[in-house]
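> call design_seq(struct)
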């Protein structure tokens, strides 16, 4: 072998060694970068999971708060409904007692007669204090008419109680 061939062989061996070294270094570098990239992706996934957990937790807290508000409102409305039902039943009981008293003539409805200038009635025309009017002329109503008047006032009382119940419901539901 000639010295030139030896030199060419040596240069080729060096180039081959360098190529193998660079290839190995490339593989090591690729492996290191791949490992770093995998770590970065894992860290990013962990951060993303923490964010999702925080968002989910907040959504659960908001849902629980809304449910608590709804339950409180339902309890308030149930209490109001019981109160209005009691008022209505009390009013109906009082109305039934008044109708019974009118029917048995325990109570009579009467009206105060106004002064008629043509008659000799001594009923004063000026309004006085509220209360019993002594020595005033009164006319008793027919029991059937008294029953009709009581029925009308019963309906009015029921309507007022129902209206108050509706108003309370609207105030509770509408902020």
């Amino acid at each position: 072998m000639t010295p030139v061939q030896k030199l060419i062989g040596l240069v080729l061996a060096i180039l081959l060694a360098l190529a193998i070294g660079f290839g190995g270094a490339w593989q090591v570098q690729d492996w290191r970068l791949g490992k770093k990239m995998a770590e970065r992706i894992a860290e990013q996934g962990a951060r993303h999971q923490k964010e999702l957990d925080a968002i989910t937790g907040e959504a659960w807290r908001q849902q629980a708060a809304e449910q608590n508000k709804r339950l409180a409102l339902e309890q308030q409305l149930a209490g109001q409904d019981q109160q209005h039902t009691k008022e209505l039943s009390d009013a109906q009981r009082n109305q039934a007692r008044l109708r019974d008293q009118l029917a048995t003539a325990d109570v009579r409805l009467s009206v105060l007669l106004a002064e008629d200038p043509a008659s000799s009635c001594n009923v004063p025309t000026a309004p006085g204090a509220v209360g019993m009017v002594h020595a005033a002329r009164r006319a008793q109503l027919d029991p059937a008419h008294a029953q009709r008047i009581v029925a009308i006032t019963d309906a009015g009382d029921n309507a007022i109680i129902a209206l108050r119940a509706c108003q309370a419901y609207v105030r509770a539901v509408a902020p």
